[in-house]
Structures are given as structure tokens and as C-alpha cells.
């Protein structure tokens, strides 16, 4: 590899020798108009004989522009492909990458699987886009919505059959237990665990019905709802109620907790199905005053021209007295100005009046994960989760911290335990050093400094590991091990939540509202007030499936891809498949600092009101299969016994893991619950 000047000098040196010399320049990469461009090397061949040039050949390298880094295609990337049969763009997933045999670095054909249809097709890069043309967006959404609705209907039917079988089995076990008396209790450890688990499931089912009746008692014909069962991967599907749970034909029957619904995003009316009440979430129209909608709030939008309903995210809060608001529509890859009358939000929520909480009751429940080990069945997985409850920081009664840490990697348990041990002293020092108590107005600088000091301590651990001096401790791996961090600093009546990773904090609150009036102007039922249970996320999961997080990682020099069909999306080095991480922000994992894997916290503040019941901080062992609303119902059922509520929540999460993995694996499961009295 030579410069052109070196090539001339080399030719002179070879003037008295016979033979052929091939000279090339290296491949060059540069940026042109914001797009990475690669130019292959120049090729120069010279053949000498008897000191004379017999022949020469010169070929200048070609330029090849690549798509923007934000549009890099990897295994598992969700994008749009042009189906070659009807030439329409449909959402699809990259499931296989076919590479040219002579050029390993540059894939040229992609095997995609179209969402909802299941069809697979090999496409060249020209037929794959991250965005689709405006005129084809509506047609794609209708088709995709129809398939999603059909998948949801099939899953609902299967869930119903399975649920009915489980209910009959539970009743049978209950009869046997009642008839068995004391003898049925004298079993081994495994029998006791099974019995306790069944009792918890029965109690939970009863508790859920009580809460659901209070929340969902008024499903009526024409209501817009979301069918959102955690037993399906189709995601929430917008539907319209055809026959409500209170209709005369459904009362007194075994299906009194069922609602007949019809998917909205379908051109035919043949996909109606019955859904359980607990799998439905009512959608309500937003008030004319759009000031209640904050940036990044999740909403559902009715598009009148396309006659479809799609999920959206508030892109920019509305100005005072505005009748429209800017909403990002991820499924359509569009940013639109939507009128208030066409915006729907999940039913429930709302601010209540009054402040001041007499006290805070807390609970920490955790369970180590499990992975089937055929070689050594006695071997158990180490629990890498840690719960955080720090009360009365620096002697201040109104300053506390709650949260969870979820370690990962070979030494993830060491990292999470070490970080947990550091936090009390670091927090106390920072609060005491703030003589003017500026943190009461804005605690973000204090929390950022706390995380910076934790990172500095972990850097010291990394240096100890590289040192030959074995006396330097602690020593454990922080290069390929780390932890998430989801913590909330309570200062008076305000919770300031900082999140790094995919652990989550959710606020549960109960709001009282008047019962709706019927067409005659009379209140339904016997009048009075009815309570609504709602869940408010205080954090956002940082995963490579999130478009903004994915783009941040890719533009930092990394990539996001699946390593197999049943593998999660991971953050990976640009040209390697190891190491990898299923979150995009982390405390530790210093191997990925150069590609955006950093402890960058996201903040959200919430002022506590008299309507707020409790907050739960949990690792992804909880959130993998349980929705926010399901967690809210479980904890509300055990509102008086917060420790029992946490234990029940962990047990229900474990059951879902067993159901999904056929009892072969479940993650560490941890939750911290704080009840505000």
C-alpha cells in the first residue's frame, strides 16, 4: 500500500529487474453530504522486461455511497419492504442477511419477513426503507392493522380456551383442598409450594375482578378500546365494542366478564371476537384543553381520511388555547398536526387535590432467576438484582431514595452490590455539601454528580483488575459487566426519577369520578362516584428496539442487531458479534463507552398528590411479561399488606416466565414498593 509518489520511486527501483509489480492504494472512507462514502483502492500494474516497460494497467477506485448510519440494516431491524407482487410498502423485519462471497463486509441482499402476513422475500437494498412514501402510508397501515387485528383475535380465542381450562382446574383443586382437611397440608416442600401458588392465583383472580369491575364497569357499544393481552406479541390492537359487558344478553352467563369487540383497522367486519375485560383498556377522548398532554406522552390517533387508528407520541406540547398538537406516528413514520377531537388516551388518571403524606411504607421483594442446567441440576443462577431503600438521607426526614439495580454480565452481581453499597455515603456527602440546599429546587445536578462518582469508583475497580498488585481491591470485571439503575429521589412531596437501562418505575394512583349519564340525562346505576385505577410510567426503557436509542448507538459507532431468530436485539460493536448488551445505557460495561453505552440518566419529576397510592420500581424480570396495569391491579389488591403485594407480584411474574419458557428459564425478579399514606 503506497502513495503515488512512492509508486513512482518504486518503479524506478524496479527499472533493471524483470517481472510484474502490482501497486494499490488503500480503501478510503469519507463523508459527503452527511453520508458515509467509501472509495475502493486504485490499481496500478507494471510489467518490466530487459529494463523496459512492456505493459501497464491503471484502474481508479470507485466511489460507493452507503445509506445514512441511522438506516443501517442489521438482523432484527424493523423497516419497510416493497412487496414485489403488488409493489406496496409493508412493515417487515430483517431475518437473514445474504452477503456477497467475495466481499464480507457489505451485505447486498436481505431476507425479510412481512409483519402480520408471515411472507418471506429476498430484497435488495433499493427495495428496503426506514421511511415510506406519504401516499402509500395509509394503505400500508390499513393492511398491517388488519393482519394485527386478525392475530389479536386468534390469540384472544386461544387465551379464552386456555383461561376456561385453568379456571376449571383451579375450582377442582379448591374442592380437593377443602375436602382434604389438615391431611392435605402435610406435604413435602414441593407440594406446599404448589398449594401456596394456587392459593395466590385464586386470590389474585378474585382481586382483579373487584378492581376491574370498579374500573371497567361501563363498557358500552361504540366504546374505543385497546385489546392488550400479554400472551400475544401482536401488541395493543385498537378495537370498537360491539356488545358491552353490561348488555342484557351477557348478564348471568359464563361470559359476563367478556366483551364482544371488532378490530378498527380492518376493511372487513368478520374479525369480531370476544375478549376478557382484563385484556381491554378503554380509550377516552382528550379534553378540548390540550395543555394536559406533555411531551412524549403516548396517545392514540384517529385518522379520518384513512379511517384507521394508530399509536402516537406527543412530539411538541400544544400552545395555550391551541386546538391542535404535533404528534409523531411511529407506524406511519410521519409527523402530523392532529385536532383534539381525534386524539384518545388510555382511560384513567388525572391529578387530584391536596398534598402531604403522613408516612411511607416500603417493601423489597426479590427472587433469583433460574436456568435449566442439564449438566448440573443443582446449580442455581446468582441473583444480580438489588433493591434500594435509603431513608432520611443526611438526617433529613423528607429526603429518601428508592430504586432497583439489575446487574448483567459474569460479575453483574458484584457490580450491583458494589453500587448499592456506595450510594448511601455518596448521597449523604452531596446533600451535606449543598449548604444552600439547592437540590430542593433542582436535584438533577446532585443525581448526575452521584452517578459520576459511582462511575469514578468503578473506573478504579477496572484499574485494580489491570494492576499486577493483587492487594488492590475490590477486583471484579466492569469491562463486560454492569448494572441498570432506576432510582427516585424524594424531596418533600416531589419524586425525581433518574433512569439508566431497562428497569422501570411506575406510579399507581386512584382517581374518583362521577358516573356517566345516560341518554335520558340520568346517572347510570345508583349514582355516586366510581374509582379508576391508573398507572403512570416515571421512566422510559432504554433498549435497542427504541428508534431514538438505536439511532444514538449507530451514530456513535455501534450497531443494533439480533444474533438469532429468538434472540433479543443487542448493542454490538460495528464489526463484531461480541461483546453484546440488550440495553443501550448502563452503569459499567466500559467496553462500549465508545459506541454510546454510557450512564446517561433520563429524568422525570412528579409532584405527589392525595390520589397517588404507591410507586413500584422493578427490574425487567417483572416488566417482561406483566403490563403496568396488571402490576397496578396486583398491588391494589394487597394495598393494606404491602409486603404481601410485593411477594404476590414477584410470584405472578415467575408464573408468566414459566408459561412463556416452559419452565426452562426465568430472569431475576425484584421490586421495591413504596406506599404513600
Helix-residue proportion:
25-40%
Structural class: alpha+beta
Figure out the total of helices: 9
Shape: globular
In round numbers, the mean pLDDT is 76
Short description:
The chain contains nine helices and 37 strands.
SSE blueprint:
Layout: H1 4-13, E1 19-24, E2 28-32, E3 35-39, E4 43-49, E5 52-59, E6 63-65, E7 78-83, E8 88-99, E9 107-114, E10 120-124, E11 128-129, H2 134-180, H3 189-216, E12 224-227, E13 237-243, E14 258-263, E15 273-276, E16 280-285, E17 298-303, E18 308-316, E19 324-329, E20 334-339, E21 343-346, E22 360-367, E23 370-371, E24 385-390, E25 399-408, H4 412-433, H5 444-466, E26 482-483, E27 485-491, E28 494-500, E29 504-514, E30 529-537, H6 547-555, E31 558-561, E32 570-573, E33 587-588, E34 602-607, E35 612-618, H7 620-623, H8 628-637, H9 642-661, E36 665-666, E37 669-676
Antiparallel strand pairs: 1-4, 2-3, 3-6, 4-5, 7-8, 7-11, 8-9, 9-10, 12-13, 12-16, 13-14, 14-15, 16-21, 17-18, 17-21, 18-19, 19-20, 22-37, 23-36, 24-25, 25-26, 25-27, 26-33, 27-28, 28-34, 29-30, 29-35, 31-32, 35-37
Helix pairs in contact: 3-8, 4-5, 8-9
